[in-house]
Please model this.
Amino acid sequence: MASSGKFDGVDFSQIDIESLTPEIQQLGQGFRCVRGEFVTYWKQGRIQREADAYLCQCWIIRVEDALVGYITLLADKLEVEDTLLAQERVKYRTFPAVKIGLLAVDRRTKGLGVRLTEWAIDYVITKVTPIIGVRFITVDALYDPDVEPPYDASGFYEKLGFEFANPIEHLPPVNPYRTMYLDLKPLIEALAREELDEDQL
Ligand SMILES: CC(C)(COP(=O)(O)OP(=O)(O)OC[C@H]1O[C@@H](n2cnc3c(N)ncnc32)[C@H](O)[C@@H]1OP(=O)(O)O)[C@@H](O)C(=O)NCCC(=O)NCCS
Model:
């Protein structure tokens, strides 16, 4: 959706992403999202409650006192039909993953969904994979058949390289979402190569 008005001209790449704190929970009164339930999740404190219960960690981005986006991350396992890593001689069909739980941006912004998702991918690669085995980032991409046209978040994740865990699933899906995954290995290896190149300069 095109940006309009309030946040025009804001360079979100220059704004830090912050961990959710109880003070930040107070923000968000003016938050507007293309899917109203994501405003409700925030305003009714669901995200703060789940973070307090260690069910997720939440990061936010704000412009002064206005919440403009949030993303939650939690531990997950990716289950697939195929032996995804057969070429690596790994026969499992279940893999350790980190899940994007909830992701929402103010509808008057542009590019913020990508900024938050790429930040999360980078965070998992740099902070989590060095200390615990995590091969994939997963997401249950929202699919709502009850609006016209159906709301389908999967296109957003596809643009970022995510693939469907069940590529032959019929629409509408059984659940109001389709599980997708991003393989972190190529990204981890690319980062390692970049760091090696920098060291050699
Ligand atoms: C999904 C969401 C986070 C995307 O954030 P966004 O800031 O609008 O996305 P961006 O502006 O960063 O868009 C990046 C690209 O993805 C595209 N895109 C965004 N949503 C898309 C969708 N549902 N299907 C296909 N493409 C989509 C944009 O058009 C843009 O394409 P471009 O680079 O060619 O211009 C946002 O629309 C949102 O908050 N939706 C409601 C909550 C939701 O559905 N969350 C995800 C649940 S799993």
